[in-house]
Amino acid sequence: MISGVSEIYDAHARINSYIHNTPLIHSKEINKLCGCDIVFKADNLQKIGAFKARGACNAILSLDKTALDRGVITHSSGNHGAALSWAAQMKKISCIVVMPENASKVKIEAVKSYGGKIVFCEPTISAREMKVQELIDEYKYTFIHPFDDYSVIAGQGSIACELESQLQEPLDKLLIPVGGGGLISGISFFAKKNGGIASTIIGAEPETARDATDSFYSKTHVTDYKPMTIADGLRATLGVKNFEIILKNVDEFITATESEIIEAMKIIWSRLKVIVEPSSAVPLAVILNKPEYFKNERVGVILSGGNLDLEDLPW
Amino acid sequence: MISGVSEIYDAHARINSYIHNTPLIHSKEINKLCGCDIVFKADNLQKIGAFKARGACNAILSLDKTALDRGVITHSSGNHGAALSWAAQMKKISCIVVMPENASKVKIEAVKSYGGKIVFCEPTISAREMKVQELIDEYKYTFIHPFDDYSVIAGQGSIACELESQLQEPLDKLLIPVGGGGLISGISFFAKKNGGIASTIIGAEPETARDATDSFYSKTHVTDYKPMTIADGLRATLGVKNFEIILKNVDEFITATESEIIEAMKIIWSRLKVIVEPSSAVPLAVILNKPEYFKNERVGVILSGGNLDLEDLPW
Per-residue confidence at A236, pLDDT binned at 50, 70, 90? Predict the structure, then answer.
């Protein structure tokens, strides 16, 4: 478990020289459109193009020599595979990424470009987990879960440390996209224990991948869920450790439809002039859809990543 | 004429509180790909999404009260129309933009969103100029040319002032996209008189809009030229004042093909995670096409703008 915010500060200090302290960006035009004052934390400009660099880096830098020497393994169809490959390359250790056969070409290329070794499996969760276990049994690799892991959670929480030093005063609301829950569990833990970044922490999910929303409001971990969303980074089902932290530290969840997500993504691209993947557009989609709820407030939005296939845009 | 670099420093001081001091960005992956160390000056993140905000702002802030009271007028199918509308709105004066009937919807919307009044004309240079003259004769508007104007040139040159304070040491080469020549005349004048930003100043043009390249090497102003390029910001023909400054201060010109420009644009989008319009990709296209010429050097690239129709991408 995470004992206190000091663990998140420690994670930040550990990874600080390897990652970017990403900028806060904003747009008067977007503020006018939404009727509130929005601060975007641009972690799409993070190493490997996503916040996942933080958690993967902290996880690897937290390993002892024996674990490092064995090399690391994970399963991922997305940014965590690239992030772990990148962090492993810096420490000169080997990294295996088990990916579904139907993973996107862009994600496969990313893992390869950072020196990760890919092992393909059938595109089901059970096939992934079996393949990982098989390889661990044979080669003793150290497993780094994409989100259900305290060192990964603490690493993602480092965004909150940066926000604390970047903000002049706490935000009224902070919106965080939710997939497996690594990002929101790290940030919300920090925010609630420390109180320095935002009064209200809100999880933002696609309406058609609302397992975390349902888990949160029913207080029962929904694990049997089939997501259907263009926000590919948010298709994962909430992790066990993540659910526990979220229940204690998140204030609410709000969802957005697919068309709202696409509209928000286009607004970010055309107004902020930065590339975000669909997952990163979910918080703005929530604001655009409920402007009266955010009226005149200072609202934070985490832009979680910017990796996508430019040949296959959702419009 | 521009008498000395002090005019460019003055322009920078005049506009400084209205514009962004845009960041330098870079990518290890792009450096690896090109075999050199590239610094991108991200003026696509400038107000109105293009460097044109600088020149328009300096031109308007340099007007006397009589000229201001009359309001301003320009002709533009691109970013200068939006930039002048934006600067006029800040000074609470009226701004007329004469645009061809076939101007893109995105550019029309941009002018409107900054409060500019659009007057449409037939899509020829002579129709534009006639319509502008007609309106000046009737209403006495103050004309601000998109590039063939010393206050505009000095304003665009303010990028060089920022580069000077952002760079630890001068660059080996600096690549600047060339349309009408406002940007490169301002920057090259500063670079040659002052010497603080780069040893070699290179104009980058599409192969199919190479009127400035031809003018430079023949030392004869090519004015009868039909450009055909996706880099819509570079379709203008070199201005008279611009040609004069370029002949004295630019070291060379290099061109890139349309497919090289599109490839470079995709690399910038996917690696730097920022939106640039095709014009901004021309310098990187030049580097990708002549890597041996830039090998191991420190190279600067001006990202001139990020305004384009996301529904109509060139791939």
Answer: very high
Q: Report the gap between the CA of A138 and the closest CA in chain B (Å).
A: 34
- B311 contact A CB<8A: yes
Q: State which residues form the domain around B107.
A: 53-150
Chain A environment of B306 (Cβ under 8 Å): 273
CA-based nearest residue in chain A for residue B113:
A29
Q: What is the number of residues in chain B?
A: 315
CATH number, domain with residue B140: 3.40.50.1100
pLDDT band, residue B193 (cuts 50/70/90): confident
Taking the C-alpha atoms of residue A24 and residue A302, their distance in angstroms, rounded to an integer, is 10
Residue to mutate among B270, B307, B311, B312, with most A CBs inside 10 A, is B270
Are B274 and A275 within 8 A, CB to CB? Answer: yes
CA distance A151 to A11: 8
Cβ contact A273–B269 (<8 Å)? no
Please tell me the predicted confidence (pLDDT) of residue A125: 82
| A27 among known catalytic residues | no
pLDDT at B104 over 90: no
Residue B75 covered by a domain: yes
Backbone angles phi, psi at B170, to 5 degrees: -60, 150
My answer on whether A256 and A176 are in the same domain is yes
Chain A residue numbers touching B315 (CB-CB < 8 A): 310-311
Determine the Cα–Cα distance for residues A74 and B246; give it in Å rounded to an integer.
Answer: 55
Give the closest residue to A76 by CA, choosing from A66, A61, A88, A65.
A88
Return mean pLDDT, chain A. Answer: 96
Q: Which residue of B has its CA nearest to A306?
A: B273
What Cα–Cα distance (Å) separates residue A207 from each residue in A77, A123, A255? 21, 23, 5
User: What is chain B's alpha carbon radius of gyration, rounded to the nearest angstrom?
Assistant: 18
Cβ proximity of B281 and B265 under 8 Å: yes
Total Cβ atoms within 10 A of residue A159: 27
Task: Evaluate if residue B37 carries a pLDDT over 80.
Answer: yes
What is the Cα A208 distance to its own chain's centre? 18
CB within 8 A of B289, min separation 6: which ones? B256, B257, B260
Who contacts B166 (Cβ-Cβ below 8 Å, separation ≥6)?
B24, B41
User: What's the confidence (pLDDT) of residue A104?
Assistant: 84
In 3D space, the residue among A136, A159, A132, A134 whose CA is nearest the CA of residue A146 turns out to be: A132
Question: What is the full DSSP assignment across B203-227?
Answer: EEEEGGG-HHHHHHHHTS-------
> Is the CB of B113 inside 8 Å of chain A's CB atoms?
yes
pLDDT tens per residue, range A97-132: 999 998 888 889 999 999 999 999 998 888 999 999
Average pLDDT (B196-222) is: 97
Whether chain A has a CB inside 8 Å of the CB on B32: the answer is no
Place of tokens 């920090």: A190
Domain boundary among B95, B128, B150: B150
**Domain presence at residue A308:** no
In this structure, the answer to whether residues B45 and B70 fall within a common structural domain is no
**What pLDDT, on a 0 to 100 scale, did the predictor assign at position B125?**
82
Distance from the B30 Cα atom to the nearest Cα atom in chain A, whole angstroms: 12
Q: Of the residues B150, B180, B205, which one is the last residue of a structural domain?
A: B150
Number of domains forming the structure of chain B: 2
* Position B123 confidence tier, pLDDT thresholds 50, 70, 90: confident
Diameter of chain A measured on Cα atoms: 58
pTM for this structure? 0.94
